[in-house]
Amino acid sequence: MPDTHPDLRVDPSAPPGAAGALDRAATRLAAALRTLDADARRVEPWLGDPASAEAAARYAAHAADGPDAAIERLRALHAELLRARDAAGAAGRAYRGTEESVTASLDVR
């Protein structure tokens, strides 16, 4: 007789819960990114002299706009959080649909 118990069970609330947690994290990161973006572009001379003003401008350009800008890496993390949220939501919907199909097929018998 075949084993009728699945090897894996998913709590039906787990995928939506994970999607919600990822969404909250993405929302918090988006708010922080808005603040960081504004702060990173504000150039203030550190010591009030031309050399420190130039250093501050170079730092701001690198932090906000450079090819390896730190803020771009955080934006990439934000995008990844959104993709993970969407994937968790889709997994939850697919799991729920499968469970409903299986339940419906068992009710027919």
Automatic annotation (TrEMBL):
Listed Polar residues bias regions: 100-109
Region (Disordered): 1-21, 89-109
Biased composition annotated in UniProt, kind: Basic and acidic residues: 1-10
Highest taxon of source: Bacteria
The protein, known as: PE domain-containing protein
Species of the source: Pseudonocardia spirodelae
